[in-house]
Amino acid sequence: xxxxxxxxxxxxxxxxxxxxxxxxxxxxxxxxxxxxxxxxxxxxxxxxxxxxxxxxxxxxxxxxxxxxxxxxxxxxxxxxxxxxxxxxxxxxxxxxxxxxxxxxxxxxxxxxxxxxxxxxxxxxxxxxxxxxxxxxxxxxxxxxxxxxxxxxxxxxxxxxxxxxxxxxxxxxxxxxxxxxxxxxxxxxxxxxxx
Length: 194
Ligand code: UDP
Prior knowledge:
Elements: E1 3-6, E2 9-12, H1 17-25, E3 33-38, H2 40-45, H3 50-58, E4 61-64, H4 67-77, H5 86-100, E5 104-108, H6 111-125, E6 129-133, H7 142-152, E7 156-160, H8 165-176, E8 181-184, H9 188-193
Parallel strand pairs: 3-4, 3-8, 5-6, 5-7, 7-8
Antiparallel strand pairs: 1-2
Helix pairs in contact: 3-8
The structure holds uridine-5'-diphosphate.
Uridine-5'-diphosphate binds next to helix 9.
């Protein structure tokens, strides 16, 4: 996948979200790695936040989520990237997970939002949710949560902790438990539960 560089960070050019999903799931339907939605705010924060920068650089999939990223690549490289909205991408991924019966763990959001997202995914979408934690936990609980994710057997972990927390969490959890796909979903849980 060709990467286009903006402020030292490479962004991939996917024609649309289904091409990205095909790339992620591969021929065998098994996805691993970390996925980061790239927008202008994240790129600016990553100039000074070394942990965020490192998490973005190590991510397996970086796609253009923000219009300003699309415009910046056009100005700099003369290439028109497709904009892939993170919330849509996550919902498509959940549909695919439901079809394949892929085990999913949901991390993040306020407690009632987390509950409602799980209910909707299970009942309305038929997603096999194997674990859930809301996103307001103490630093000291991080290790336990990562173990809980591993022990749940989740193959897809959706992480809604806001940026840069979610990117850093995903990278660390992926390093400890590489046999899963981690997708940062920002405010998507609020959209689905609303
Ligand atoms: N969030 C969370 N824990 C936190 C901070 C945020 O679970 O410590 C959740 C928040 O409830 C929301 C999501 O992360 O559902 C995205 O938060 P925000 O909109 O602040 O982040 P952004 O999408 O702007 O990066």
